[in-house]
Every structure is written in C-alpha cells, then in structure tokens.
Design goal:
This is MaoC/PaaZ C-terminal domain-containing protein. InterPro entries: HotDog_dom_sf, MaoC-like_dom, MFE-2_N. Belongs to the enoyl-CoA hydratase/isomerase family. It holds the Pfam family MFE-2_hydrat-2_N. By secondary structure, the protein is an alpha+beta fold. The protein has 2 domains: 111 residues, Thiol Ester Dehydrase, Chain A, CATH 3.10.129; 127 residues, Roll (Thiol Ester Dehydrase, Chain A), CATH 3.10.129.10. It is 15% helix and 32% strand. Strands 1-3-4-5-2-7-10-9-8-6 form a 10-stranded antiparallel β-sheet. A hairpin with a 3-residue loop joins strand 3 and strand 4. The radius of gyration is 19 Å and the shape is globular.
Length: 288
C-alpha cells in the first residue's frame, strides 16, 4: 500500500479520557533520567510523592496513541519512520488525578518526492475535563523515509532562521542511562525499535534507540535545571519546538548548548561524538 493523503487526514483516533497518578508522574521522571542522584534536591520533588512536582514535558505521553502508523491501512512503511519534529505548548499545570481528555488528529500530509520520503504531521489537544480548558497542545511530524512519491502535494522548503554565531550562554551534559529506552517505553510508546535488537537492526540501527520524545524531555530538563540558578522555575515553561536530526543510543551522553535571549532559549543537543541529535531548538518561558 501507499499513502493516501485524504485517508490520513480523515484518520479517526479514539478520544482518550485519563487521569495520571503520582506513580505515573514519578515513572515518567525516572524514565527521563531524574533521580540518578537520589540526594539531588533539585530532582527529588519529581520522583518523591511527599512533595511531588510534575515535569511539564510529561504532556507528550498523556493520551499518546502509540505507534498508530503501524496500521497497514495508513499505507506507511512504519519500520522506516522517524520522528522529525516536535512542539509542545503549555497552557496549564499537569496535576495528578485530575480527569483529562486527549483528542488526536492528522493535520498535514506532505509528499517530499520519490526517494525523499513524506512528512505526516499530527496534533493532540489535552484538556481539563471539568473546565474544558486546554492544558497542553502538541504537534509531531513523522518523517516517513520510504513513502515519498505517492502523488501528494509538494511544498517549497520554508526559510530557516539564522542560528546564533556566538558561543552558547550555557551548556549542560547529562549521561543517558543504558536502560533509559526500556524505562521510558513504559509511559506508553511501545514501538519495538526501542527494545528489540532485531527490529532496530531491520530499521538500520546498530541497537535499539532512545525515544525521540525522551531525548526531547532530557534537553528540556537540562535547560530548566540550568536556568534555575537564574530563578527560572519549571512552571515558567511556555513552549518548546525542536527538530530531530539523529537518534540517541541509550548509554550515550547528551550535551545541550543554550543561547538565551531573555525569555527565549535557543538550543542544540549533541552526543559525545559531536553528532547533532536535536537542532533548531526553541524554548520559550512565560512572557517570551
């Protein structure tokens, strides 16, 4: 089968009603790597129920439909799919045991051309059931490497904002646990490319890779924890957007360089070998 843009744009996702628990919030934080030093007072509130705080990036796993693109009816060659881009807009705090409703939709399908792949953009809204207010909005872009040339619309490449030429204002190095992908997948994304060596090899990787959304969360925490020395709080996060350039392997170190411009932080993350894995990062704080 091949991609049919109209069919994907009309793809029906179930509405997901949920309420995450304190345990869920702690499991998410542990999967992102917090608590490696259990005496770290900056990380302890996210992994200890007595004064629990919730990472705002946890929104990316709430109501996540999992690898829905594995359904043969999508026409997508799922084993060749990579996570291309991710955005997160925070509208309110995440609170355990509060009923939430998640709705999902495909918003765009772009044909890059034969041999160049396709882009499928899909979005999720998370709302407080009792008030109807948005808690978070998310948009993900799937890079379908083997699905270009299906006859869909092609678009010119958008202009890219010039990257800062100065040295980073801050940097943060965090080591990814060798079992990070096995922990993180328990949040709901059970794609076997993150756990099964054979599936990873079939997809062209030397071993199972880390979820892009885990790398995304590690970078966000790297920034927020670094800026805490300047009085920035986790709840100050307003939005984040990033491009995924390459996968991270569990066990690698992630270096996040930051260029702060007031309430805006542009960032880029690399692995120990200097390979860029997150690019064009744009994090906004409240007021930015």
């Amino acid at each position: 089968m091949t991609i049919n843009a109209e069919k994907l744009l009309a793809w029906e996702f179930p509405v997901v009603d949920l309420a995450f628990s304190q345990k869920d919030a702690m499991l998410y934080a542990l999967g992102v790597g917090l608590g490696t030093d259990p005496t770290d007072e900056r990380e302890l509130p996210f992994v200890y129920e007595e004064r629990l705080a919730v990472l705002p990036s946890m929104a990316v796993v709430l109501g996540h439909p999992g690898p829905w693109f594995r359904d043969p009816a999508t026409g997508i060659d799922w084993i060749q799919v990579l996570h291309g881009e991710q955005t997160l807009a925070v509208h309110g705090p995440l609170v355990p045991d509060v009923p939430l409703r998640c709705t999902t939709r495909v918003v765009d399908v772009e044909d890059k051309g034969e041999g160049r792949g396709a882009l499928v953009r899909w979005a999720r809204d998370i709302r407080d059931v009792s008030t109807g207010k948005l808690v978070a909005t998310l948009e993900s872009t799937l890079f379908c490497r083997n699905d270009g040339g299906f006859g869909g619309e092609q678009r010119p490449r958008p202009a890219v904002e010039e990257w800062p030429s100065t040295q980073p204002t801050d940097s943060c190095l965090r080591v990814i646990s060798p079992r990070a992908a096995l922990l993180y997948r328990l949040n709901g994304d059970m794609n076997p490319v993150h756990a099964d060596p054979k599936v990873a090899a079939d997809a062209g990787f030397e071993r199972p890779i880390l979820h892009g959304l885990c790398t995304f969360a590690v970078a966000i925490w790297s920034i927020l924890s670094t800026l805490a020395d300047d009085g920035v709080k986790v709840d100050d996060l307003s939005s984040v957007a990033v491009r995924f350039k390459a996968p991270v392997l569990p066990g690698q170190a992630l270096l996040t360089d930051m260029w702060r411009e007031g309430d805006r932080v542009r960032f880029r993350s690399t692995t120990g070998d200097g390979r860029v894995v997150l690019d064009m990062g744009d994090l906004r704080l409240q007021g930015g």
